Amino acid sequence: MNLLTIVLLAIITFTSRYLFLDPSLPIRIGPKVGRFLSFSAPAVLTAIWVPIIFVKDSQLNLSPTNPYLLAALVAIVVAKKTSSIYLTLSASVVFFVLLRLYLPV
Amino acid sequence: MAFDRRSAYLYRARQGALDMLPLNLAVLPWGILCGSLAIQRDFSTLEALLMPALVFAGAVQLIVTQLMYEQAPLVTILFTATVISSRHFLYGLALRDKLKHLPLRWRASLGFLLTDELFALSGQSKSLRGKLQLVYGLGAGGSFYLCWLLWNVIGIVAGAYLPDLTNLGLDFAIAVTFIALVIPSIVNVAMIVTVVVAALLSVVFKLLNWELGLVLASVIAMYCGYLTTTIQAKLVINTKCNGPSLEELP
After folding, report:
1. How confident is the model at residue B1 (pLDDT cuts 50, 70, 90)?
2. For residue B110, what pLDDT is reported?
3. Are B198 and A42 an interchain contact pair (Cβ–Cβ within 8 Å)?
4. Strand partners, A59
5. DSSP-assigned beta bridge partners for residue B114
6. Are residues B81 and B137 in the same domain?
7. Do B167 and B111 share a structural domain?
8. Which of A68, B43, B181, B241 is the most exposed place for a label (fewest CB within 10 A)?
9. Are residues B106 and B228 part of one domain?
10. The model's pTM
11. How far is A60 from chain B (nearest CA, A)?
């Protein structure tokens, strides 16, 4: 039963990724739609990361002691200054771990 | 000659894997979490292995593992997975014109590997154009697949000895990766509009506990970005037309 479910899940994830790459689909992307789609990466990625920072258990967490928020600010500054994934990742993750260890919860 | 070409391909594939490395590392805690959760939720080792190997999607794995443990109806499980995966439709659409002409083996393999991370990495207009760039994408996506599998295996092996990791804040590494990729790409007003709208709407929809909110927030944000460029183009035309008359003013 579980195996069947897993195979069906695999079909779903593959289809969602592959579907619009298939040439037999009668879809033509004009310049306007192309321009619209050019915003997909910043839009989707932002819609993924921002809720991780601000929402915890369906509650908005704007507290100045929210470790996600503080470490994300560090990440944004480092990303803006350096454009380096490594520096952004290491600086903010270290900061995040320290906050989790030393901030009173 | 053929030898040269092969070494050029190998070089590009390695370059892709190297560029993907920070993202591969960033999903390490998340992969361990997915693998260990499967074991802790009574999956057999084979089932726990097939999740990353075939389904290959962190968010789907995590949520579905919990649903399957709670013995949710199959329809609920599949529907939830479809909703979570629906953002990938946008990736396919965005890359359609670059990839649809390719032979099936390229489309299928890059399609299979088309995660958030690979899409984020292949965001530039020149990426995935031409065979060298495709090999680059394959190197990046392939290395991500292998790492994801490996991190899951670590979780599966260690799962029985690990505590429940779900509330440790391991999702922070994912958030930071996307911050690192998105922030430097904000170079004009349209991008600012897109990111701000996506940020606000995604939080509102998340608070409403609306699984489809991610895609809806993205699509509205994309439209706002698109509208911004349209308005900017009109403003440029207007100032060009009005330009001379403005200069005639006293």
Report:
1. low
2. 96
3. yes
4. A56
5. none
6. yes
7. yes
8. B241
9. no
10. 0.88
11. 7
Chain A environment of B174 (Cβ under 8 Å): 48-49, 52
Which residue, B135, B162, B184, sits at the end of a domain?
B184
Which amino acid is residue B119, in one-letter code? F
**In 3D, which of B248, B197, B215, B174 has the Cα closest to residue B91?**
B215
Give whole-number Cα distances, A35 to A44, B142, B227, in Å: 15, 29, 10
CA distance B225 to B189: 8
Token output for B178: 């996307």
Domain with B14, as residue range(s), is: 2-184
- Residue positions counted in chain B: 250
Looking at chain A from residue 60 to 89, which residues have their Cβ under 8 Å from any Cβ of chain B? Answer: 60, 67-68, 71-72, 75-76, 79-80, 83-86, 88-89
Q: Which distant-in-sequence residues (6+ apart) come within 8 Å of B3 by Cβ?
A: none
Question: Nearest Cβ partner of A17 from B114, B214, B221?
Answer: B114
**pLDDT value at position B6?**
87
User: Are B118 and B225 contained in the same domain?
Assistant: no
For residue B249, pLDDT beyond 60: no
Same domain, B174 and B214: no
The residue segments making up the domain with residue A17 are 2-102
